[in-house]
Each structure stands twice: as structure tokens, then as C-alpha cells.
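TICKET #2291
ISSUE: user wants both folds in one file
ATTACHMENT 1:
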Amino acid sequence: MLVVSYDFESDKQRARFARFLERYGYRIQYSVFQIRDSQRVLQNILTEVELEYKKHFTGADSIIIFRLCEGCKKNIKRYGYAKHEESEVIFIT
């Protein structure tokens, strides 16, 4: 699993980056996404950051990418609505 946390001073850049990340995962907090972990996905994100976002950074902008191993994922504690994100849902019609 990849966790991408970001903050941009510009609302436009922040919204644009969020739309970009939605291609690969889902939002778990306002400026935090959980992303599928694959080398291809990570490389796509790093390339996009380097080519499109890095050149527009101000002193207030940041992107942090965490790669969590399988062992680390077992140590994640979720509370509130977040505790249901990993649950399997079965629909019976």
C-alpha cells in the first residue's frame, strides 16, 4: 500500500493533484490518499510529480509518499468510519 499525503498553497493545484490520485486509489483523509502498491503505479506518480508539479512548488507545498510493507499494514489501527474501509461488504438482493 502507498499512502500519499500532500498540501498545496494553490487550491487549483491541490484539486488537480487530488483528481490525478483518484485514478490510482481513494481518499482516506482530506489530503491523504491510499493507493494500490505496484512499481508501475509508484513510477507513474513520481513521474507526474517530477514533470508537472515540482516546478510549481512554493515554500508551502509538499508531497510525501509512504510505502507500507505487508507487515506494516497489519499494524494499522483504524477508528471511526475508517475502521470499516477494509471490511468486505456483501449485498444480498
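ATTACHMENT 2:
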Amino acid sequence: MGKTYAELEIGDRFITPGRTITEGDVFLFAGLTGDYNPIHTNRTFAEVTDFGECIAHGSLGIGVAFGLLSRIDLIDGTVIALLGLKWNFHAPVRFGDTVHVVAEVTNKRPVKHEDRGIVELDLKIPNQEGVLTHSGSATVLLRRERPAAAGWGKAAKSSAA
């Protein structure tokens, strides 16, 4: 279960495990989104571009960032909404690159509803060589307390005999 608004402090820093981006990831993402831009899906085309090869979709990197954050239980089950996102692309993510996320709490503030608060996260995504590929900030609305019915990882009792 993720951290609550009350458990996070400005300056808290979190580092996710890495994830290697594969050609399969890119093709699945293209199929899901309908974005078949040849820079992502056509080797012959991509070889004559400035990149010299196919690269991952920028928006795939954003999705992977939030997936990696879920692996460290930062906001899973405690986030109510993603309120805003600002994003920058610095370097391409190539097939075979392993990326991870460095997240830092940069701001937090209460809202009129006492059961929640807003947290701003600074996100950086370096690759295996330490090259910054993406950076951005995310503003999320978080619960102040875990839901009473939350049972991440707990076995449910059964009345069946």
C-alpha cells in the first residue's frame, strides 16, 4: 500500500528498481495507442534518422515511470487522482536501455477536504549509463489515511468449508 499524504515530507527521495525497455514493449505500446510512427516501429526508416535506430515512444517512458513508482509502493492505493504533469524529454530511450526513476517530494499542501492533500513529485529517469532521458513533475491528490478496507497482500478470509 502506498504512502499517505501524512507520511510524505518535502525532500523525501525514492529510487525505483530498473526496467529494461524492449522492442516488444514498444510494439505493444504502439498497438495499444495506435501510434505507429516509423521512428518507433520501422527499422529501415529509423536507421536513416538522427537516432540511427528505433527508439521508444516518449509517452511510453511516462507510463513506465508510473509503473516503476508502483513497484516501490509510493502511491498505489493512496492516490486519488493525478492532477497534473509537466514533462521534458532529454535523450531517447533505445531498445535495451534500462531505466529507473528518482522521485523527490518537492511540495505538499492541504486542501479543503481534510481526508486528502496535494503532493508534488519531481521525477527523473536516467538510463543504465546515468544519462537523463526524461524529467518532469507530477501533482497528485493523496489520501491522508489508508482506506480501512485496504488489504494489499492480505489473504481474504473465506466462509467456504
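RESOLUTION: both attachments delivered.
EXTRA DETAIL ON ATTACHMENT 2: Strands lie at 13-15, 19-20, 79-89, 98-99, 102-110, 116-126, 132-143.
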